[in-house]
Amino acid sequence: MSISVQLSAASLQYAGAAQATFAGLNLNLPAAKWTCLLGPSGCGKTSLLRLLAGLIDSSHQLSGQISCSDGLSIDNRISYMAQQDLLLPWLNVLDNVCLKAKLLTGKVSAGEQHKARQLLAQLNLSGIEKSLPDQLSGGMRQRVALARTLMQDTPIVLMDEPFSALDAVNRYKLQDLAAKVLQGRTVLLITHDPQEALRLSDQLYLFSADQQLLPLPLPDSLPPRAVDAQLGQYQQSLLQKMQVLHG
Q: What's the rounded Cα separation, in Å, for the pair 108 and 217?
Protein backbone atom coordinates (compact mmCIF):
# COMPACT_ATOMS: atom_id res chain seq x y z
CA MET A 1 0.00 0.00 0.00
CA SER A 2 1.28 3.46 -0.91
CA ILE A 3 1.48 5.97 1.91
CA SER A 4 1.81 9.73 2.15
CA VAL A 5 4.19 11.42 4.57
CA GLN A 6 3.69 14.72 6.38
CA LEU A 7 6.59 16.67 7.87
CA SER A 8 5.37 19.41 10.20
CA ALA A 9 7.19 22.36 11.80
CA ALA A 10 10.63 20.86 11.20
CA SER A 11 13.61 22.80 12.52
CA LEU A 12 17.29 21.90 12.54
CA GLN A 13 20.35 23.68 13.89
CA TYR A 14 23.66 21.86 13.84
CA ALA A 15 25.81 21.98 16.96
CA GLY A 16 28.14 24.97 16.78
CA ALA A 17 26.24 26.61 13.91
CA ALA A 18 25.36 30.28 14.27
CA GLN A 19 21.91 29.83 12.75
CA ALA A 20 19.39 27.15 11.91
CA THR A 21 19.68 25.19 8.67
CA PHE A 22 15.89 25.55 8.44
CA ALA A 23 13.06 26.36 10.85
CA GLY A 24 9.31 25.72 10.86
CA LEU A 25 9.43 23.76 7.62
CA ASN A 26 6.35 21.87 6.39
CA LEU A 27 6.33 19.32 3.58
CA ASN A 28 3.80 16.79 2.34
CA LEU A 29 4.94 13.80 0.27
CA PRO A 30 1.87 12.46 -1.59
CA ALA A 31 1.45 8.71 -1.81
CA ALA A 32 3.00 7.04 -4.87
CA LYS A 33 4.25 10.38 -6.23
CA TRP A 34 7.66 11.95 -6.83
CA THR A 35 8.41 15.09 -4.85
CA CYS A 36 11.57 16.93 -5.89
CA LEU A 37 13.47 19.53 -3.88
CA LEU A 38 15.61 21.81 -6.00
CA GLY A 39 18.27 24.21 -4.86
CA PRO A 40 21.99 24.98 -4.84
CA SER A 41 24.54 23.17 -2.72
CA GLY A 42 24.39 24.11 0.95
CA CYS A 43 20.77 25.28 1.01
CA GLY A 44 19.57 22.50 3.33
CA LYS A 45 18.18 19.92 0.90
CA THR A 46 20.29 17.01 2.08
CA SER A 47 19.78 17.97 5.73
CA LEU A 48 16.03 17.74 5.23
CA LEU A 49 16.39 14.34 3.60
CA ARG A 50 18.63 13.13 6.44
CA LEU A 51 16.06 14.33 8.95
CA LEU A 52 13.36 12.23 7.28
CA ALA A 53 15.71 9.25 7.20
CA GLY A 54 16.44 9.56 10.91
CA LEU A 55 20.14 10.24 10.29
CA ILE A 56 20.46 13.41 12.41
CA ASP A 57 21.92 12.54 15.81
CA SER A 58 20.82 13.99 19.13
CA SER A 59 23.83 16.30 19.48
CA HIS A 60 22.06 18.76 17.16
CA GLN A 61 18.94 20.85 17.87
CA LEU A 62 16.09 19.11 16.08
CA SER A 63 12.33 19.46 16.34
CA GLY A 64 9.23 18.69 14.32
CA GLN A 65 6.87 15.82 13.61
CA ILE A 66 6.78 13.14 10.91
CA SER A 67 3.51 11.29 10.34
CA CYS A 68 2.35 8.72 7.78
CA SER A 69 -1.13 8.40 6.30
CA ASP A 70 -1.57 4.87 7.66
CA GLY A 71 -0.86 6.00 11.22
CA LEU A 72 2.29 3.89 11.55
CA SER A 73 5.81 5.09 12.27
CA ILE A 74 8.09 5.96 9.37
CA ASP A 75 10.89 3.96 11.03
CA ASN A 76 12.22 1.03 8.98
CA ARG A 77 10.05 1.93 5.99
CA ILE A 78 12.58 4.07 4.13
CA SER A 79 15.17 3.22 1.48
CA TYR A 80 17.99 5.69 0.89
CA MET A 81 19.92 6.13 -2.36
CA ALA A 82 22.92 8.45 -2.11
CA GLN A 83 24.88 10.41 -4.71
CA GLN A 84 27.71 7.88 -4.48
CA ASP A 85 26.75 4.29 -5.25
CA LEU A 86 28.38 3.06 -1.99
CA LEU A 87 28.92 -0.43 -3.41
CA LEU A 88 31.28 -2.56 -1.35
CA PRO A 89 34.28 -3.22 -3.63
CA TRP A 90 34.97 -6.73 -2.29
CA LEU A 91 31.41 -7.95 -2.93
CA ASN A 92 30.10 -8.92 -6.35
CA VAL A 93 26.99 -7.33 -7.82
CA LEU A 94 24.55 -9.93 -6.51
CA ASP A 95 25.95 -9.75 -2.99
CA ASN A 96 25.83 -5.95 -3.03
CA VAL A 97 22.17 -6.01 -4.03
CA CYS A 98 21.42 -8.52 -1.26
CA LEU A 99 23.51 -6.68 1.33
CA LYS A 100 20.70 -5.77 3.73
CA ALA A 101 19.50 -9.37 4.03
CA LYS A 102 23.07 -10.49 4.62
CA LEU A 103 23.58 -7.91 7.37
CA LEU A 104 20.28 -8.69 9.10
CA THR A 105 20.35 -12.48 9.05
CA GLY A 106 23.91 -13.42 8.15
CA LYS A 107 22.76 -15.24 5.03
CA VAL A 108 20.88 -14.73 1.77
CA SER A 109 18.08 -17.12 0.88
CA ALA A 110 17.52 -18.60 -2.56
CA GLY A 111 14.32 -16.57 -2.78
CA GLU A 112 16.18 -13.34 -2.08
CA GLN A 113 18.80 -14.18 -4.69
CA HIS A 114 16.04 -14.86 -7.21
CA LYS A 115 14.40 -11.52 -6.42
CA ALA A 116 17.76 -9.75 -6.79
CA ARG A 117 18.32 -11.35 -10.20
CA GLN A 118 14.85 -10.25 -11.30
CA LEU A 119 15.59 -6.67 -10.27
CA LEU A 120 18.92 -6.71 -12.09
CA ALA A 121 17.19 -8.00 -15.21
CA GLN A 122 14.58 -5.25 -14.90
CA LEU A 123 17.43 -2.74 -14.88
CA ASN A 124 19.13 -4.34 -17.91
CA LEU A 125 21.93 -5.82 -15.79
CA SER A 126 21.51 -9.54 -16.45
CA GLY A 127 24.77 -11.45 -16.72
CA ILE A 128 26.89 -9.28 -14.43
CA GLU A 129 25.85 -10.83 -11.11
CA LYS A 130 29.38 -12.09 -10.37
CA SER A 131 31.18 -8.93 -11.48
CA LEU A 132 32.93 -6.69 -8.96
CA PRO A 133 32.04 -2.98 -8.80
CA ASP A 134 35.37 -1.81 -10.25
CA GLN A 135 34.59 -3.81 -13.40
CA LEU A 136 31.47 -1.70 -14.07
CA SER A 137 30.87 1.68 -15.68
CA GLY A 138 29.47 4.55 -13.63
CA GLY A 139 26.00 4.08 -15.09
CA MET A 140 26.00 0.36 -14.35
CA ARG A 141 27.14 0.98 -10.77
CA GLN A 142 24.26 3.39 -10.19
CA ARG A 143 21.80 0.86 -11.59
CA VAL A 144 23.18 -1.73 -9.16
CA ALA A 145 22.68 0.82 -6.38
CA LEU A 146 19.10 1.33 -7.56
CA ALA A 147 18.54 -2.44 -7.53
CA ARG A 148 19.84 -2.55 -3.95
CA THR A 149 17.42 0.24 -3.03
CA LEU A 150 14.50 -1.65 -4.61
CA MET A 151 15.58 -4.85 -2.86
CA GLN A 152 14.67 -3.26 0.46
CA ASP A 153 11.04 -3.14 -0.71
CA THR A 154 10.04 -0.08 1.32
CA PRO A 155 7.10 2.23 0.53
CA ILE A 156 9.23 5.39 0.88
CA VAL A 157 12.39 6.09 -1.13
CA LEU A 158 14.74 9.02 -0.44
CA MET A 159 17.20 9.89 -3.22
CA ASP A 160 20.06 12.36 -2.73
CA GLU A 161 21.26 13.47 -6.19
CA PRO A 162 21.72 9.83 -7.28
CA PHE A 163 22.29 10.64 -10.97
CA SER A 164 24.50 13.73 -10.69
CA ALA A 165 27.81 11.95 -11.35
CA LEU A 166 26.61 10.43 -14.65
CA ASP A 167 27.02 11.79 -18.15
CA ALA A 168 23.93 13.32 -19.77
CA VAL A 169 22.90 10.23 -21.76
CA ASN A 170 23.19 7.79 -18.86
CA ARG A 171 21.53 10.27 -16.51
CA TYR A 172 18.53 10.52 -18.85
CA LYS A 173 18.27 6.74 -19.20
CA LEU A 174 18.52 6.13 -15.46
CA GLN A 175 15.90 8.79 -14.74
CA ASP A 176 13.50 6.90 -17.00
CA LEU A 177 14.38 3.57 -15.41
CA ALA A 178 13.94 4.92 -11.90
CA ALA A 179 10.54 6.40 -12.75
CA LYS A 180 9.46 3.02 -14.10
CA VAL A 181 10.72 0.73 -11.35
CA LEU A 182 9.68 3.04 -8.48
CA GLN A 183 6.04 3.24 -9.54
CA GLY A 184 3.82 2.99 -6.48
CA ARG A 185 6.55 4.25 -4.11
CA THR A 186 6.50 7.61 -2.37
CA VAL A 187 9.72 9.27 -3.55
CA LEU A 188 11.63 12.34 -2.39
CA LEU A 189 14.38 13.35 -4.81
CA ILE A 190 17.01 15.94 -3.93
CA THR A 191 18.63 17.59 -6.95
CA HIS A 192 20.37 20.77 -8.12
CA ASP A 193 19.49 20.02 -11.77
CA PRO A 194 16.39 21.95 -12.97
CA GLN A 195 15.88 19.68 -15.99
CA GLU A 196 15.97 16.55 -13.83
CA ALA A 197 13.51 18.08 -11.38
CA LEU A 198 11.11 19.07 -14.16
CA ARG A 199 11.34 15.65 -15.83
CA LEU A 200 10.60 13.57 -12.73
CA SER A 201 8.41 15.66 -10.41
CA ASP A 202 4.78 15.20 -9.56
CA GLN A 203 5.34 18.16 -7.26
CA LEU A 204 8.38 20.43 -7.19
CA TYR A 205 9.74 22.79 -4.55
CA LEU A 206 12.59 25.27 -4.59
CA PHE A 207 14.51 26.07 -1.44
CA SER A 208 14.46 29.84 -1.09
CA ALA A 209 17.24 31.95 0.38
CA ASP A 210 15.22 32.29 3.60
CA GLN A 211 15.07 28.49 3.93
CA GLN A 212 11.44 28.07 2.88
CA LEU A 213 9.99 25.72 0.28
CA LEU A 214 8.43 27.46 -2.71
CA PRO A 215 6.07 25.35 -4.88
CA LEU A 216 6.85 25.55 -8.59
CA PRO A 217 4.65 24.97 -11.66
CA LEU A 218 5.12 21.88 -13.81
CA PRO A 219 4.21 20.98 -17.40
CA ASP A 220 0.83 19.30 -17.88
CA SER A 221 2.40 16.06 -19.15
CA LEU A 222 3.11 13.15 -16.83
CA PRO A 223 6.61 12.23 -15.64
CA PRO A 224 9.07 11.15 -16.81
CA ARG A 225 8.68 14.03 -19.26
CA ALA A 226 10.36 14.30 -22.62
CA VAL A 227 13.00 16.99 -23.05
CA ASP A 228 11.03 19.07 -25.52
CA ALA A 229 10.32 22.73 -26.22
CA GLN A 230 7.76 23.02 -23.42
CA LEU A 231 10.15 21.56 -20.86
CA GLY A 232 12.84 23.91 -22.13
CA GLN A 233 10.57 26.91 -21.52
CA TYR A 234 9.86 25.76 -17.96
CA GLN A 235 13.56 25.16 -17.41
CA GLN A 236 14.47 28.67 -18.57
CA SER A 237 11.83 30.19 -16.30
CA LEU A 238 13.04 28.09 -13.39
CA LEU A 239 16.67 29.08 -13.92
CA GLN A 240 15.69 32.74 -13.91
CA LYS A 241 13.80 32.27 -10.65
CA MET A 242 16.76 30.48 -9.08
CA GLN A 243 19.08 33.32 -10.10
CA VAL A 244 16.78 35.86 -8.46
CA LEU A 245 16.44 33.86 -5.25
CA HIS A 246 20.02 32.67 -4.87
CA GLY A 247 22.07 35.10 -6.91
A: 45
